[in-house]
């Protein structure tokens, strides 16, 4: 039994996928204890990796979502010691397509709702940045102008030593931006302008393209991790 447990593989739990300069760390952690374990695993994995020289740029990216009534703020705070350069938030939707039929319009109502949830995650992360920069500052960012439809990609500029954060409309768009065409198993964005509509996304794209190594932690909702795995390794869903 011990050997069976030792040799068991559970996709999406402490799983690592290496694709050229990108390394994807996947761990569906959605409770305080599981996020703490995730952070320990991720930091240990980074510590064990081959060391690059100080002149070699490496980038750390968080991809996160949390659903239901769970308060995301304590979970996001636990992730701060990982020192991410970018925090990316998106719904648990693999793809988003635009259509005018009634069924899709009903779906878009749900899309607006989950995007608002992602914006709340971004706001929590920005508050943590503000706390780190100045404990006396506690400002609540307001929603972006233009209503939920404008939240398909919502950047918030970082404070000094803070993390740039973005919201994407679906997992596919988030992965395309993170990978910048450097993962052979992910399609290059067909309309780059859609993904580079804001300064944070544009400047971040250059950083990600030039980085010698990109370390991406995907955590939070198990559905998010499952959607990422479906795109990174479609054979798992067959």
Task: Describe what this molecule looks like in 3D.
- InterPro entries: Folylpolyglutamate_synth, Mur_ligase_C_dom_sf.
- It comes from Myotis myotis.
- One of its GO terms (molecular function) is ATP binding.
- The chain is of the alpha/beta class.
- It has a single domain (16-50, 59-94, 113-237), classed as Mur ligase, C-terminal domain (Protein-Tyrosine Phosphatase, Chain A).
- The chain has 8 helices and 6 strands.
- It has helices at 2-7, 32-48, 72-79, 102-133, 171-179, 192-195, 199-210, 222-232; strands spanning 15-19, 22-27, 58-65, 86-89, 164-167, 213-220.
- It has a 6-stranded mixed beta sheet with strand order 1-2-6-3-4-5, sandwiched between helices.
- The radius of gyration is 18 Å and the shape is globular.
- Residues 3-8, 137-152 and 156-160 have low confidence and may be disordered.
CATH architecture: Alpha-Beta Complex
What is the tally of helical segments?
8
CATH topology: Protein-Tyrosine Phosphatase, Chain A
What amount of the residues lies in strands?
5-15%
| CATH C-level class | Alpha Beta
What does the largest sheet look like? 6 strands, mixed
Give the count of structural domains: 1
* Structural shape: globular
Number of DSSP E strands: 6
**Overall pLDDT:** 80
CA distance, first residue to last residue? 28 Å
Helix and strand succession? HEEHEHEHEHHHEH
Can you tell me the residue ranges where pLDDT is under 50 for at least 5 consecutive residues? 3-8, 137-152, 156-160
Report the structural category: alpha/beta
Give the strand line-up of the largest sheet: 1-2-6-3-4-5
Helix content: 40-55%
Q: Could you tell me the radius of gyration in angstroms?
A: 18 Å
Can you identify the CATH superfamily? Mur ligase, C-terminal domain
Keywords: ATP-binding, Ligase, Nucleotide-binding
Protein name: Folylpolyglutamate synthase
GO molecular function: ATP binding; tetrahydrofolylpolyglutamate synthase activity
InterPro entries: Folylpolyglutamate_synth, Mur_ligase_C_dom_sf
């Amino acid at each position: 039994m011990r050997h069976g447990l030792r040799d068991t593989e559970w996709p999406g739990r402490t799983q690592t996928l290496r694709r050229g300069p990108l390394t994807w760390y996947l761990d569906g952690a959605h409770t305080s204890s599981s996020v703490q374990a995730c952070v320990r695993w991720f930091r240990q994995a980074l510590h064990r990796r081959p060391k690059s020289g100080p002149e070699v740029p490496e980038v750390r990216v968080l991809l996160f979502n949390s659903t239901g009534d769970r308060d995301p703020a304590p979970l996001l705070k636990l992730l701060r010691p990982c020192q991410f350069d970018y925090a990316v938030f998106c719904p648990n939707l693999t793809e988003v397509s635009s259509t005018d039929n009634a069924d899709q319009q009903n779906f878009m109502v749900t899309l607006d709702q989950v995007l608002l949830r992602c914006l709340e995650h971004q706001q929590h992360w920005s508050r943590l940045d503000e706390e780190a920069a100045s404990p006396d500052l506690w400002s609540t960012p307001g929603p972006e102008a233009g209503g939920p439809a404008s939240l398909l990609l919502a950047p918030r500029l970082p404070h000094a030593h803070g993390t740039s954060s973005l919201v994407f409309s679906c997992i596919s768009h988030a992965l395309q931006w993170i990978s910048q065409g450097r993962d052979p198993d992910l399609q290059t964005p067909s309309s780059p302008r859609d993904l580079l509509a804001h300064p944070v996304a544009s400047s971040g794209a250059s950083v990600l393209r030039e980085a010698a190594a990109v370390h991406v932690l995907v955590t939070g909702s198990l559905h998010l991790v499952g959607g990422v795995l479906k795109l990174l390794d479609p054979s798992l869903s067959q």
